[in-house]
Design goal:
Blueprint lengths: L1 H13 L7 H5 L2 H20 L3 H24 L5 H15 L1 H4 L7 H20 L18 H14 L7 H20 L5 H21 L4 H25 L9 H14 L1
Helix pairs in contact: 1-4, 3-4, 8-10, 9-10, 11-12
Length: 265
């Protein structure tokens, strides 16, 4: 706890109106959002690289974001870091009655159902007497990456029975949405708004497919990005070794290089 207290004191000093850091003094809740998201992604990157030293450092950067928000709230007399820590402690205790109370849970699936039941009770308590405003999609943050948010929305709906019975129906829906995209592209006069809408439906269906297949959509796309980056860099190296310029090569020539890269893997 000594190190936490030291970090909180450093944060107070950075926000001191007279002697603090000009950049830190300019920040507010809204301005910190992109930095918080960036730090979270850097934690994920360090974990994917399995670099424990970097994980430690990136987690520290992410923790600093929480301390920063807490300091801003302290200045507004809203809450402080202790309140944040207490709130999550209370929530974890409340949501794990099988650990901290006498509730018996036999497996992971049963635990997940109980977890969702408790979260729904919390949503009902937050809504108060006006249950008309309550939805099973409540508190799925709109600031989540779109892939992650789509998956969460689908899971919430699926728990209420709004879902395909098996993956065959999902696959059929993907093909249907792909056909609708093709129809928009084949139109003599393209409507950009309609095309955007249809491509969005196609993405949503693909995420549904990954969910039914038991694959995390966000993680699979991150891996696809890394794979593409690795292969394209290899393609650049081959092109350079042969004194070729990628932007002057034909599609067939590029396809041949791409196949060569894949074969080397």
């Amino acid at each position: 706890m000594k190190s936490i207290e030291e970090l909180i004191e450093i944060m107070r000093a950075l926000r001191d109106p007279k002697s603090g850091c000009p950049w830190d003094l300019e920040q507010n809740f809204q301005s910190l959002i992109p930095y918080t998201l960036e730090e979270a992604y850097e934690v994920a990157d360090a974990i994917e690289r399995n670099n424990l030293d970097d994980i430690k450092n990136e987690l520290g950067d992410l923790l600093f974001q929480i301390v920063f928000y807490s300091q801003l709230a302290t200045e507004q007399q809203a809450f402080d870091f202790d309140d944040v820590a207490q709130a999550i402690s209370d929530k974890l205790t409340r949501r794990h009655p099988h650990v901290f109370a006498d509730v018996k849970i036999s497996n992971v699936e049963e635990q997940t159902k109980e977890w969702e039941k408790l979260k729904q009770q919390e949503r009902q308590a937050k809504a108060g007497s006006d249950i008309s405003i309550l939805s099973h999609l409540d508190d799925v943050s709109r600031t989540l990456p779109s892939l992650m948010r789509a998956e969460k929305l689908q899971k919430r709906a699926a728990r209420e029975g709004f879902d395909w019975p098996d993956i065959k129906g999902v696959m059929a829906k993907v093909y249907e949405e792909l056909d609708e995209v093709q129809q928009e592209l084949d139109d003599s006069i393209q409507d950009k708004a309609r095309l955007e809408d249809e491509i969005g439906d196609l993405f949503f269906s693909c995420i549904n497919l990954s969910r039914h297949a038991g694959v995390d959509a966000e993680q699979s796309l991150r891996k696809a990005n890394l794979k593409f980056e690795r292969r394209f860099r290899a393609l650049e190296n081959i092109a350079n070794s042969q004194n070729l310029q990628i932007n002057k090569m034909t599609t067939d020539e590029l396809e041949d290089l791409w196949r060569e890269v894949k074969e080397q893997e």
